[in-house]
Amino acid sequence: MRINPPLKRFAQLVAAGSLVLLTVPAAAQAQTAPCPGPGTDTAVETPVVINPATACPDTAQALKIVYAPRVDGTLTLDDKDPHGGEPSEHDDIRFTPSANTQSFVIFNKKTYILKNVHYHGPAEHKIAGQPDFSPLEAHLVHELDGPELGYVVLSVLVNPAKATSEHDRLLHEPPTTPGAGKNVKGVSLKALLPPQGSRTYYRYTGSLTTPDANHVYYKPVNWFVFKRHGTATPGNIAAVHALWPEGNKRELQDNPVPPNVYRH
Ligand SMILES: [Zn+2]
């Protein structure tokens, strides 16, 4: 382990008896810990490992989620480059709400409109200390309302469970041909999120995880990864994995400086 010079000097003073160590209560210690740590608020490449132990209290206002109670839309096997054929790595199972569903989020006083909900399998984000990636990750993608480009993406890691959930409504018998779709009615967007009162999240600034037409992974993207996981039945998870035997996820990115992660 590298010891930085001020710490080393401190240790020398303590050893020489020039400084007397006092017992500091745990709460006070927490306040004096450097926060944010060595990370950056400049957008990094997504996905990343989120380490709850180094996440800082969020200084930004809480994300406000305003979703219509039930929305209709289409469920497609979204077809990106390379088009057609077998499902390819950037394709996904995607629910697109009908226009004007009045479903949006507010972050930093800006409004972002819900554009789609899609799934990656296995998950893209990883939580440090958890043994493996969740089998699926849902992304609720919101775009800035107005001419400028801007994103808020809500991420729900999805684990298997016997009981069906709202995710199962979108994952049951998904379209299997790129470009194919079907209508879905009365989706509860809020039921795709953890229950109200359990929506604490990790926030950081990253990128999209699929490239645009110019092969660019757009950034900045405001990422919100919920601490509490969602669920889907093992059968429906397997149905998604069967479409992408190699997975439809971007691998963890090796950023030179990790992002500052805030917990809220
Ligand atoms: Zn995604």
Protein traits:
264 residues, alpha+beta, Carbonic Anhydrase II, 13-stranded mixed sheet, 4 helices, 15 strands, globular, disordered N terminus, binds zinc ion, Carbonic anhydrase family protein
Our Rg estimate from Cα atoms comes to 21 Å
Q: Tell how many strands the DSSP assignment holds.
A: 15
CATH topology: Carbonic Anhydrase II
- Identify low-pLDDT runs: 1-11, 13-32
Give the overall form.
globular
What are the bound molecules? zinc ion
Task: Report mean pLDDT, rounded to a whole number.
Answer: 88
Count helical runs.
Answer: 4
Assembly classification: single chain
Order of helices and strands: HHEEEEEEEEEEHEEEEHE
What number of structural domains do the residues give? 1
CATH class: Alpha Beta
CATH superfamily: Alpha carbonic anhydrase
Query: Structural class, from secondary structure content?
Result: alpha+beta
Helix content: 10-25%
Strand content range: 25-35%
CATH architecture: Roll
For the biggest sheet, the summary is: 13 strands, mixed
Instruction: Give the termini distance in whole angstroms.
Output: 31 Å
